[in-house]
Specification:
This protein is an alpha+beta fold. It has 3 helices and 3 strands, in the order E-E-E-H-H-H. The longest helix has 15 residues, at 64-78.
């Protein structure tokens, strides 16, 4: 269940309530019975483990595929046999 923060418009005191999504919001301050408004607060966000970037998005081989394909294409270009002038006549 989330914790919601509220602020009293009358006395200015803030308070937190642990409540379900289906629970109605509080209408009165618990200290002075004044009108309250809901606050938007920051939440904590932690990435734990071996690293989501390294396991999900980073290239596994560090770009070695690109180097291999370049060297393979140059090798294949060198081995291409060009037609000789004798066979063309």
């Amino acid at each position: 269940m989330p914790i919601y923060e509220y602020n009293c418009k009358n006395c200015g005191k803030g308070f937190e309530i642990l409540q379900k999504f289906s629970d109605p919001p509080p209408l009165k301050c618990p200290l002075c019975s004044g009108e309250v408004s809901k606050l938007i607060s920051q939440c904590a966000f932690h990435l734990k483990g071996t690293g989501w970037y390294a396991t999900d998005y980073a290239k596994k081989n560090g770009g070695a595929d690109q180097k291999e394909t370049k060297s393979e294409t140059t090798k294949s270009d060198d081995s291409v046999i060009s037609p000789s002038k004798d066979s063309a006549d």
